[in-house]
Specification:
CATH architecture: 3-Layer(aba) Sandwich
Strand order of the largest sheet: 2-3-1-4-5-6
Low-confidence stretches: 1-38, 173-179
Radius of gyration: 19 Å
Number of strands: 8
Shape: globular
CATH topology: Rossmann fold
CATH superfamily: SGNH hydrolase
Largest sheet: 6 strands, parallel
Structural class: alpha/beta
Strand content: 5-15%
Distance between the termini: 18 Å
Length: 271
């Protein structure tokens, strides 16, 4: 451990230099607020990330902004039992899309059965497709909170990071504009993002200032000039995915991947 720490600390200056160019030079955006990239933790700690497709986007971004750490990122579907003694970022797709409880349950099971709780950091990222107008937010959040509370009690040495919910680009048409003008309340174009915003607020209200929270929704909705993409509905402000960070309205493009990856690495290295 001491030798590893010394080796990777010697790379620190190089990482700062390379990350400045890898993450771009946008002024005023979230990237420029965090130009120091320290990822020594990937070689010194055992981290588990449960996710689905946007998680793959983030991992791709990590490899782009810090390619020298590719060998410290492990896809669990390719691992043997002995590999779990390594240090680095372990990741796995968990559960099924549109069924967030299945993701939370599998995240819990993997920590208990695969890692036996022997982790330094663990987090799960739910997906934008897990939230729609039929989602019972109170029930889902209660399930998540119970699961995390039990994990924290059973494994007090693990740092659990809570994620807000990824967003999608608002789908606006001329009909949307008319409905807004006449005060039509049920805007399906905004509805699912409203649900995601509300769940993210639950995360902030419960864990903000008490436990680590990674606000992926904030970074996804922030443009390069530092403005947040927002909309008003019934007097409330909500946020949406910035056009410049996506190619299909939901998944992250290269710029979005680099941005979120950089912010996540900085967040984790500061724990």
């Amino acid at each position: 451990m001491g030798i590893k720490k010394l080796i990777f600390s010697n790379l620190f200056v190089f990482l700062i230099f390379s990350s400045t160019f890898a993450t771009g030079s946008e002024k005023g955006g979230a990237m420029s607020d965090h130009n120091k990239l320290s990822v020594d933790f990937l070689s010194q700690e055992r981290i588990f990330f449960g996710h689905q497709s946007v998680g793959e986007n983030i991992l791709s971004g990590i490899e782009k902004v810090s390619p020298e750490f590719k060998n410290h990122i492990y896809d669990m579907k390719n691992l043997s039992i002995k590999d779990y003694s390594k240090f680095g970022l372990f990741h796995s797709r968990v559960g099924n899309n549109n069924d967030p409880k299945s993701k939370i349950s599998e995240f819990d099971r993997i920590i208990r059965e695969r890692f036996k709780g022997k982790l330094d950091v663990a987090f799960i990222k739910l997906c934008y497709v897990d939230f729609n107008k039929n989602t019972n937010l109170e029930e889902l959040f209660s399930f998540y909170k119970r699961t995390m509370t039990q994990l924290r009690q059973d494994y007090p040495d693990v740092k659990f990071v809570h994620f807000t919910i990824p967003l999608i680009r608002n789908s606006e048409t001329w009909k949307t504009k008319i409905k807004k003008i006449i005060g039509f309340g049920d805007l399906w174009e905004y509805g699912n993002n409203v649900i995601r915003n509300k769940y993210s607020r639950m995360i902030h209200d419960e864990y903000g200032g008490k436990e680590p929270v990674f606000d992926i929704a904030k970074f996804e909705s922030t443009t390069a000039d530092g403005q947040r993409v927002s909309f008003l509905l019934d007097g409330e402000t909500y946020y949406a995915l910035a056009d410049e960070l996506t190619s299909d309205g939901g998944h992250l493009n290269d710029q979005g991947r680099r941005l979120v990856a950089t912010e996540l690495l900085n967040h984790l290295s500061s724990l």
